[in-house]
Amino acid sequence: MSDIELVSATKSFGGWLKRYKHRSTVLNCDMIFAIYLPPAAEEHPVPLLWWLSGLTCTDENFMQKAGAQRTAAELGLAIVCPDTSPRGSDLPGEHDSYDFGSGAGFYVNATQAPWNQHYRMYDYVTSELPALVSAHFPLNGKQAISGHSMGGHGALICALKNPGRYTSVSAFAPICNPGQCPWGEKALGGYLGDNRELWHEWDSCELIKAQGSDLPLLVDQGDADNFYVDGQLRPEALAAACEEASVPCTLRLQPGYDHSYFFIASFIDEHLRYHAEKLQ
Amino acid sequence: MSDIELVSATKSFGGWLKRYKHRSTVLNCDMIFAIYLPPAAEEHPVPLLWWLSGLTCTDENFMQKAGAQRTAAELGLAIVCPDTSPRGSDLPGEHDSYDFGSGAGFYVNATQAPWNQHYRMYDYVTSELPALVSAHFPLNGKQAISGHSMGGHGALICALKNPGRYTSVSAFAPICNPGQCPWGEKALGGYLGDNRELWHEWDSCELIKAQGSDLPLLVDQGDADNFYVDGQLRPEALAAACEEASVPCTLRLQPGYDHSYFFIASFIDEHLRYHAEKLQ
To answer: Which sites are catalytic (chains A, B) (predicted)?
Structure first.
């Protein structure tokens, strides 16, 4: 019996979008992930882009709304979308908020009960799922990572905490400084406890201050994004940390764009081409 | 007070996706429609593509999932997506089926009570809404039409019943012969009554047999589409009617593709370029 079970397979731009169910040991639950395999994957192993999604999302949102398959097919790039939190459990309050618990794993390893029974999304997206997909799909081992909002935060911390692992990292409207915004304070406080020192290893600004980065950062942010205006995202704090640590950071404020997938779709091609060039 | 009320405005590929609410006299209810205005619309009037969606859809599905804005922006093409049925009423059984009543207007003018109080989607998409959008947006009067499934049927009958109105017509997996498939028999019987002769003016195959067409037809159909396999779509009947009537029909069976928006997204650029060329 295979350790992954096909949920659906849909032809898309000559390649295949497939969804699989599997038992996650790390998360202690069943999970679904999505993979887009470009036409080139039928000929030879291909590089992989990880996409981490934002609050309330599943593996499906990006694949349905970002319009990424067209250019991924052209570039011969596979894309994996993990889900955004453990599923199927029913911890106290787990389903009460859009910004904590189900759909809001924040890509950290929780230390606080009861969350530490399941909420270890960092280990899931950096260890368990990479091993699983490399065992099952024609991937050539080269990886890049990107994401949106909570998933942009996830992409940044995964890259910063694993030097040499990813050839490139980018993010759309990431939560750059979770230790200093309401979303992050709620999530990190809940999953990691009240000692804010312990939050630093999950905050891209703090990671850059502590260790710098050899990897340049590419960040797009819409200036009409209400979460940006409300101080949830703080890209200026990231740019300042990069400046201080001499980390190359391209922060593009995109005039008129909001926080939606229409913003992502408008610029995803540029990110895909950026990653594809580094993945060569 | 304006006769349309802005619901949302989202920047997309340099242009704007806007949703508006308005009172429909024809449908006797409030309706929402979506319009994508490409960047060129800020400089001069632009041509318009009508997109008619399928069963269960609203004005939102195509705009979120088809990935059409990128090429529409490049080509300077506006797109209007009407909703697929009247909304806000509560007729007996109206919300019980996915393939009849709400979300399933079938782009006909109902003659049977109680449906004839509201279900006049043909007049809505060919008269009332065109007058409204031409009054409010920078459109140059040139129009094309396309759609998916029930909306592919809608696009075909709108074009066939209005020679000279549209410069071009295309469809994805259209219900080509509603008088001869379960979906169509249920819908046409319910909205128009049991006299099948009266269904002919709403069936693209019958319209072509009766009157031919100067307009060539472009139809894409996935060969792994379960509704095609089940006989709901019948593109071969359309091709045969066109052959008999010497109407140019390009029917492309796309191997491996299903009925989803991933299929539409895979080929929408070709349809947009096809329409843009005719709209020049």
So the answer is: 149 (charge relay system), 225 (charge relay system), 259 (charge relay system)
Distances in whole angstroms, Cα of residue B138 to Cα of each of A37, B11, B49, B134 = 41, 17, 13, 7
The interface predicted TM-score (ipTM) is: 0.95
**Domain CATH for A66:** 3.40.50.1820
Q: What's the start-to-end Cα distance of chain A, in Å?
A: 35
Tens of pLDDT, residues B158-170: 999 999 999 999 9
Distance CA(B78)–CA(B137), nearest Å, equals 10
Which structural domain, as residue segments, surrounds residue B162?
A: 4-279
CB–CB contact B258 A17 (8 Å): no
Q: What are phi and psi for residue A60, nearest 5 degrees?
A: -90, -30
Instruction: Pick from A262, A264, A269 the residue to mutate for testing the B interface (most B CBs within 10 Å).
Output: A262
What's residue B237's pLDDT? 98
pLDDT tens readout for residues A193-220: 999 999 999 999 999 999 999 999 999 9
> Which residues in chain B have Cβ-Cβ distances shorter than 8 Å to A266?
11-14, 69-70
Report the phi/psi class of residue A30: left, alpha or beta, with left for phi > 0 and alpha for psi in -120 to 50: beta
- Chain B residues whose CB is inside 8 A of the A258 CB are 10-11
In the stretch 175-234 of chain A, residues with CB closer than 8 A to chain B read: 222, 224
CB contact under 8 A, A263 and B11: yes
- Rounded Cα distance between A247 and A83, Å, is 30
CA dihedral B60, A170, A105, B261 (to 10 degrees): 30
Of all residues in chain A, what percent are helix, strand and coil, respectively (each to 5)? 40, 25, 35
SS3 B115: helix
pLDDT of residue A1: 52
pTM (whole model) above 0.90: yes
- All residues of chain B having their beta carbon less than 8 Å from the beta carbon of residue A13 are 265-266
Put simply, whether A122 touches B (Cβ < 8 Å) is: no
Tokens of B203: 């069936």
Interchain CB contact of B123 with A (< 8 Å): no
Number of domains observed in the structure of chain B: 1
Cα nearest neighbour of A18 on chain B: B262
